[in-house]
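#struct-help
A.M.: can someone run this one for me? Single chain, 66 residues.
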Amino acid sequence: GVYLMSNGVPGLPVSKRGDNVAYANEVNPITMEFDDWWDAKRASFGGDDGAEFMPADVIRAFLPPE
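D.P.: on it. Structure tokens below:
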């Protein structure tokens, strides 16, 4: 899948469901069948595993105002 996950220190506590991640709606292996999300994942991030580090300010710019 494609998701956002904090790499901040200290890290967020792991919940009963595992790491705290926010999956992209179109690329969510938790709620979608593999064949439904895999092509979108490859188109957006390629077929291999990887990571892109984004400053918190970039992510905050896309959040609704408090």
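A.M.: thanks! The CA atoms of residues 3 and 56 lie 15 Å apart.
D.P.: also worth noting: The first strand starts at residue 3 and ends at 4.
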